[in-house]
Amino acid sequence: MISLLIIGNGFDKKCELKSSFDDFEDSQYWVKDSQHLFWFFIFSYRKQIFPNENDNDWKWCSVEDLIGWVIHNYNELPTDISDVFEKIWRDPNISRSERLFLELGKFEKRFRQYLTNEVNESDKQERHLTNRYSYKVSKLLEEIKNQAFITGGLHIINFNYTEILPIVKADGYLGLQGITNADGLYCWEKIVENNVHGTLKTEIIIGIDDKNCRDKKDGNDDFKFSKTYRKMELQGRTDFQGKKQNLPDDVDQIIFFGHSLGKQDYSYFHSLFDYYKLYDSKIRLKFCFSKGHELTNEIYWLLHEYGEEFSNQRQGHNLLHKILLEGRLQIIKLK
C-alpha cells in the first residue's frame, strides 16, 4: 500500500530553511521602496488593512487571505494606498484586474529568486553535513516515516516550491537510496513527488482558493487569481511540473505535516477526500506536528467544512465522529 504525505511550509521551516513570509520580508530581496510594486506596497501596509492580524508571525495563508481581500475589496482600500497606484496605472488598455495580476507575477518572481538563493546557501559544500538543508530534509522524512508507520510506497504532495525527491534519491544521506538493512527497515525506493504549486525550477503560484471567487457569470475575472485556474493555465502552456504523477489508487493513509490547513487550500483537500471516498473508505488520516504548532482547531474545521458539502447532511454532520469512532484519525507529535 501507499502512504500519501502532504507537506507545507512548516516542513521547510522545521529543516531551518528561511522560507517564511517574515524571512522574505527581512531579506535583501524584499523591495522596500515599493511605491511602483503594488503587492510589496500592500504587504508593507498590511496592518492598516488587517489591524487585528498577528503581525509578528505572518503565515503564507495570511498572505493569500490578504491577496483575496484586496482583489474582492479593492475599492475599500485606504485612499492613501489606492491613490498611489491609481496615479501610476494610467494605461487605458490594461484593466485593474490585469494590472494586479501582472504585479502578482513580479512578487512571485522575486520570492522565487529569494528562496532559490536560500536553498543554495543552505546546501553549500563547505557547510557541515548536519547543517545542510538536504540532510535535515532526509532526517525529518525519516522521522515522519517512523512516527506515522509508513511501510510501503510514498507519494508526496508538496505545497512548497522546494523539491524533496532529488534530495532523497541523492547518495550520502542516511543510506536512503534503495537500501534495506538487515532488520528489514523500509527504504525510499518507491517514492513519487508532486509539487502542487510549482517549483523553484519552473514557475510558482501564489493565489487564492477557487471557492472564494465571486460568481463568474457577473463578469468577474477574479477566478484568474485562483490556484486552480493558474495550475490549469500553466500546465497548458509549459512543462510546469515536469513528468505528471497521477494520484495512486492503493492508498491506505493520508499524512499531513507542516501545512497550516488554511482555507485557501480547502478546494484541494476536499477534492482529495472525494477522490478517496473518505466517508466510506478505511483510509486513515494522520496529522503530524511539532511542539508549538498544534492544529486541533484547524483539523476540526477542515473536516467540518468538508462535511458541510455533503448532499447527505446527516452523513456530513457525523463525518468527524465516524472517523474518530473507527480509529481513523490520529494526531502525532514529532520531536
Global shape: globular
Distance between the termini: 26 Å
Q: Report on the biggest sheet.
A: 6 strands, parallel
Radius of gyration: 21 Å
- Share in β-strands: 5-15%
What key phrases describe this protein's structure?
10% strand; 14 helices; alpha/beta; 41% helix; 335 residues
What does this structure look like?
The chain is of the alpha/beta class and 335 residues long. Helices cover 41% and strands 10% of the residues. The chain has 14 helices and 6 strands. The protein has helices at 9-14, 21-25, 38-44, 46-49, 60-72, 79-88, 96-122, 133-147, 165-168, 227-237, 266-275, 296-308, 313-317, 319-325, and strands at residues 2-7, 153-158, 191-195, 251-257, 284-289, 329-333. β2 (153-158), α9 (165-168) and β3 (191-195) form a beta-alpha-beta unit. The model is unreliable at 171-186 (pLDDT under 50).
Helices and strands, with pairings:
Blueprint: E1 2-7, H1 9-14, H2 21-25, H3 38-44, H4 46-49, H5 60-72, H6 79-88, H7 96-122, H8 133-147, E2 153-158, H9 165-168, E3 191-195, H10 227-237, E4 251-257, H11 266-275, E5 284-289, H12 296-308, H13 313-317, H14 319-325, E6 329-333
Parallel strand pairs: 1-2, 1-4, 2-3, 4-5, 5-6
Give me a quick take on this structure.
With 335 residues, this protein is an alpha/beta fold. It has helices at residues 9-14, 21-25, 38-44, 46-49, 60-72, 79-88, 96-122, 133-147, 165-168, 227-237, 266-275, 296-308, 313-317, 319-325; strands at 2-7, 153-158, 191-195, 251-257, 284-289, 329-333.
